Amino acid sequence: MEIRFQNSPKETSTMNTQQLRDNFHVPGLMKDDQLQLVYSHYDRVILGGAKPVNSHITLANHPELRAEYFLERREIGIINVGGDGTVTADGTIFPLSKLDALYLGKGTKDVTFKSNDPKSPAVYFLLSAPAHQTYENRKLSKEEASPVTLGDQSTANKRTIYKYIHLDGLKSCQLVMGLTVLNEGSIWNTMPAHTHTRRMEAYFYFDVQEQHRVFHFMGEPTETRHLLMANHDAVISPPWSIHSGAGTASYSFIWGMAGENLVFTDMDAVAISEIR
């Protein structure tokens, strides 16, 4: 498990392209039959990916957690963006199709990931945060996530938003998770931009065509930088940073947050005219 420490706005403003990528860009989260994890000191979240193809993958414990098992003092959100599969949690089997989500609470000991068909493997994005109490292990399908269509084709941001783990959805201690699917011909996400110093955020880009990329914008609103994102790349967004993107074609992305506020709409808006 890779460990990444925090960076201040002042420090980040002096970084070159490679330094930005080393600190905030998480490339290639999905590798066949492997579990990839990155521990970020922003709100102590762990983001990762599991892509079981020829065998199942276990959510293994790591010595850095100083725990008896991975979820001894943590919760985790899981969203499948690939083929059909199953997640087994302490003997309970949860079938997950594409865009289905699963929440597993503190105290869940044994977690395994499987695919139904190796020719169309499941692709699981994971986001974990410290937890202070136990909430029910629950699945939520994409149909149950109250999808809402927003934006307009004239501003190239027509999209459908699915909210899974939030104050009025799957219960959690501090995780908030969902995803956004952009319509064909739309490329902009989260513009106008915002920050929320009460919680960090992570993006995971998927359904990005091989020959295309997403320009992900980060940094303080008046000190913006960008990262080039490919399919199955993730980005760590500090609480003080904007998080917005424009693709060379339409794409989808998972957004996940952790911090002190579970209200989805808790954000500090930044007008487009104020961004530098």
UniProtKB/TrEMBL annotation:
Cofactor(s) the protein requires to work: Zn(2+)
Textual note on the cofactor: Binds 1 zinc ion per subunit.
Annotated keywords: Isomerase, Metal-binding, Zinc
Pathway(s) this gene product operates in, as recorded in its UniProt entry: Glycan metabolism; pectin degradation; 2-dehydro-3-deoxy-D-gluconate from pectin: step 4/5
One Gene Ontology term of the molecular function aspect: 4-deoxy-L-threo-5-hexosulose-uronate ketol-isomerase activity
Catalyzed reactions: 5-dehydro-4-deoxy-D-glucuronate = 3-deoxy-D-glycero-2,5-hexodiulosonate
Keyword Metal-binding: yes
Pfam families in the record: KduI
GO BP term, pick one: D-glucuronate catabolic process
Residues annotated to bind Zn(2+): H194, H196, E201, H243
Enzyme class label: isomerase
Key word Metal-binding present: yes
Domain of life of the source: Bacteria
UniProt function note: Catalyzes the isomerization of 5-dehydro-4-deoxy-D-glucuronate to 3-deoxy-D-glycero-2,5-hexodiulosonate.
Database matches in HAMAP family: KduI
Entry similarity comment: Belongs to the KduI family.
Protein name: 4-deoxy-L-threo-5-hexosulose-uronate ketol-isomerase
Species: Pseudobacter ginsenosidimutans
Chain's gene name: kduI
